[in-house]
């Protein structure tokens, strides 16, 4: 069964400093990887989706996937206090899995002004 | 644009009663719909995945008898929490996907409180 783990559990950075979040997964055949943000027990906001090794940038958010190392990371450039939220890594098990995702436990990011 | 609406946004029910929540996909065909639960202080757990032309598949620890799901067409799904108790509290999220797995949309969720 797929296991998705995120680190660190919480992270505090100063406004403008790069924030880096990590996610490891157990199934090397996993196909799709997504980073979401959740503000205060609300719904999910998709930040970036990545399907192949390498980098994918969406605005200030960059995901980096290394399937061989079972690792996907998220880097937030110039974070602002409004970026303070829980960041969730989600993995799809195989192609055409539809809406099936396994979520990590989340990283709570706090951005200090 | 593509959107997923969930309602109600919040609901409170008495212990032992049932509560139905709905999910509406707008602007795309929801060939798959997944229902998730985020219990307090936890991450999202998949309850079940419904794919058009396939049986609804429930994850371990979740059953159709407790969480019956309907997915009658490509724009609508509903789930009922039967006999809700304290451990059923949480945020229930509907995720809808298109067949090629490249596009996936979430609603804002239904927050369930149980008294």
Report Rg of chain B: 13 Å
Low-confidence stretches of chain B: none
Derived from helix and strand composition plus strand pairing, the structural class of chain B reads mainly beta
Helix content of chain B: under 10%
Task: Work out the largest interface and the residue count of each chain.
Answer: A-B, 26 and 29 residues
Shape of chain A: globular
> Spans of chain A with pLDDT under 50 lasting ≥5 residues?
none
Q: Terminal Cα separation of chain B, in Å?
A: 38 Å
Rg over C-alpha atoms of chain A, rounded to the nearest angstrom: 13 Å
**What fraction of residues of chain B sit in β-strands?**
over 45%
Q: What is the average per-residue confidence, as pLDDT of chain A, rounded to a whole number?
A: 92
Determine the number of helices of chain A (DSSP H or I, runs of at least 4 residues): 0
Distance between the termini of chain A: 41 Å
* Strand residue percentage of chain A: over 45%
**Count of helices of chain B?**
0
Oligomer class: heterodimer
Using DSSP, what is the number of strands of chain B?
Answer: 11
Helix content estimate of chain A: under 10%
Please summarize the sheet with the most strands of chain B. Answer: 7 strands, mixed
Kindly name the structural category of chain A. mainly beta
Summarize the helix and strand pattern of chain A as letters: EEEEEEEEEEE
Could you provide a short overview of the structure?
The complex is a heterodimer of chains A (113) and B (115). Chain A is an all-beta fold and 113 residues long.
